[in-house]
Amino acid sequence: QVQVVESGGGLVQPGGSLRLTCRASGDIWRIGSMAWYRQGPGYQRELVATITDGGIAVYDDSVKGRFAISRDNAENTVYLQMNRLRPEDTAVYYCKADIRSLGTILIPYWGQGTQVTVSS
Predict the structure, then answer these.
(1) pLDDT tens digits, residue range 49-99?
(2) How many CA atoms lie within 13 A of 79 on its CB side?
(3) Fewest CB within a 10 Å sphere: which of 19, 91, 97, 99?
(4) What residues contact 116, with CB distance under 8 A and at least 6 apart?
(5) Does residue 100 sit in helix, strand or coil?
(6) Cβ atoms 27, 101 nearer than 8 A
């Protein structure tokens, strides 16, 4: 069994910062790419940022220069540092991790989501 759990969401004023954390646990042999997605009210889920196991990061244009994704491979954890938050960043943020258990291929696992609300 594999679990992916996010934390760190909340309410923040425009211009503020939040740090999201996502930790994978369970039957893990290897983790490939890890990513953060978000889904705002009335919108489809969209990719925010992704990072390879080698540390190469790619961002959506809407968050470039404001968000930073990083990971700790020893802790099976990925982070999303969000700065200069805007009301349009309000969404449920989901973590996805491509995980290989012993004897399996890489399988995408999703967390349950954490709410981020940017409002004054």
Answers:
(1) 999 999 999 999 999 999 999 999 999 999 999 999 999 999 999 999 999
(2) 11
(3) 19
(4) 9, 10, 12, 18, 20, 38, 82, 85, 89, 90, 91, 92, 93
(5) strand
(6) yes
